[in-house]
Amino acid sequence: MSIGGAEFTSIGQGEIRAKLLEQQRWVSDRLQEMQQSDPVLAESEPEPEIGTEAWKDTTHAEMEVKKQGLLRLQKDAQEVINLLEKGLYGKCKTCGKHVEEVRLKFPVTATKCASCAASSSTNIQYQRAA
Prior knowledge:
Elements lengths: L1 E2 L2 E2 L5 H25 L14 H35 L14 H5 L8 H16 L1
Antiparallel strand pairs: 1-2
Helix pairs in contact: 1-2
């Protein structure tokens, strides 16, 4: 099977799509669970105990960080589904070369070859340091 111009024998488009759709379902379920258990969004007590507000704020902040990570997973999965539909999955979105098969297996949301991914990581580190 050819994905992005490269031959893949151990992984196919159907398998990739199935993994991504399953990932999106899992993320949606986790987001819904988080929404229901977020103490800030839940019904509040008329007179909370001392320390309850601080606990709620801390727990809510932690949940927001986790939520952002889950939303990123969902966005990455949708991006790869779009690439599959356009026939571009397996090509580096930066340089256009083929993404190494091992990078496409896990995570299946890899959209850059190893070289471009390393360059991006280095650039981010330099931007944070500045």
